[in-house]
């Protein structure tokens, strides 16, 4: 998978991971992929719901120790 941008949102509490993700997605072209790293436990539900509501595609999610990683394709 080609990653176009990586966002480090570790250590940020809700709603900042979503705010930072939205800003980063605005800098991408349709079809590009953003990789997001966060430690906010609520981010899985938040980012999934947000991506669906605005037309982006959550390609993959994984947990690596305390870091949640998301790959979101811009719709």
From TrEMBL:
CDD domains recorded: SirA_YedF_YeeD
**Location of the UPF0033 domain:** 7-31
Q: Cite the InterPro entries for this sequence.
A: TusA-like, TusA-like_sf
PROSITE patterns named among the record's database cross-references: UPF0033 (PS01148)
Gene3D superfamilies hit by this protein: TusA-like domain
Q: Which SUPFAM superfamilies match?
A: SirA-like
What family, per the record?
Answer: Belongs to the sulfur carrier protein TusA family.
Q: What is this protein called?
A: TusA-related sulfurtransferase
Q: Which organism is it from?
A: Metabacillus niabensis
Q: What is the lineage of its organism?
A: Bacteria, Bacillati, Bacillota, Bacilli, Bacillales
